[in-house]
Amino acid sequence: MTKQLMYLFLTMIITRTLSSGTAPAGQSNASLKRLDRLHIEQFAVYNALGEISQKAQVTIGVDAVEPKQESTVVLDFPGGKVADLLDMFVAAAPDYRWTETSSGVIHVSRTSAHVSLLDVVMSYPGAVKKTRRNIWEDIANRPEVAAWMQSNSCLRGELFNGKEFREHDDPISIGPGSLTLTELLDQVAVKSRVNYWAVLQSPSDTPCRIQIILW
């Protein structure tokens, strides 16, 4: 076999294209994990994705300026790869797309409705043996986050049911450095094994409210 043919052959093996999502080379291949048949039925996209994360045991981060109206997402998945399940989700919610990071975290975002707070770069002091709740509460104290909230005339508005921190709240550590809010939430979700986060912004024609969900 010539060198050119060998190169093309190896390229075909290494290159992977997903119909509705993308994942970089060297990833942990969470999207290739195989699943049995499962049923998802939840009101609102972020709840459906939370159930997908729980049942598939993969880490998912959700990012969306919310639509004016939400609907119930129903998926009867016959079995297959996580990527197939995510593609089925996108077919049911076509204004969303998914990607996978090199560390295997799946990000789901609403097309053309990105929450720019997630791009804010923080000079993060680090967290040593802090619980998930400690780290979540401290986000409001980050000057860069506070500045974004002020410049966008935005308020926090999470809703609680009392179960948010009952599990997966053992102390973890996050190293100091320059981190976007996305990178911080990814690390906390993975290390705490809660495996889910969502940052949701109220519809664009309403007063700005942000929910930072880390449970």
- How many E strands? 15
Number of H/I helices: 6
Q: Report the sheet-strand fraction.
A: 25-35%
Measured as a percent range, the helix fraction is 25-40%
Judged by helices, strands and strand pairing, the structural class is: alpha/beta
Strand order, sheet with most strands: 1-7-8-4-14-15-11
Order of helices and strands: HEEEHEEEHEEEEHHEEEHEE
The CATH class name of the largest domain reads Alpha Beta
Mean pLDDT: 89
Gross morphology: globular
**Spans with pLDDT under 50 lasting ≥5 residues?**
1-20
CATH architecture of the largest domain: 3-Layer(bab) Sandwich
Computed over alpha carbons, the radius of gyration is: 19 Å
The number of domains: 2
Oligomeric state: single chain
In whole angstroms, how far apart are the ends?
A: 53 Å
The CATH superfamily of the largest domain is identified as DotD protein
What name does CATH use for the topology of the largest domain?
A: Phage tail protein beta-alpha-beta fold
How would you characterize the overall build of this protein?
With about 220 residues, this protein is of the alpha/beta class. It has two domains: about 20-110, Phage tail protein beta-alpha-beta fold (3-Layer(bab) Sandwich); about 115-190, no CATH class. It is built from six helices and 15 strands. It has helices at about 5-15, 45-55, 80-90, 130-140, 145-150, 180-190, and strands spanning about 20, 35, 40-45, 60-65, 70-75, 80, 95-100, 105-110, 120-125, 125-130, 155, 170-175, 175-180, 195-200, 210-215. The strands form five sheets. The protein has a seven-stranded mixed sheet, with helices on both faces. It has a two-stranded antiparallel sheet with strand order 2-6. Strands 3-5 form a two-stranded antiparallel ribbon. A hairpin with a 5-residue loop joins strand 7 and strand 8 (about 105-110). The chain starts with a helix and ends with a strand.
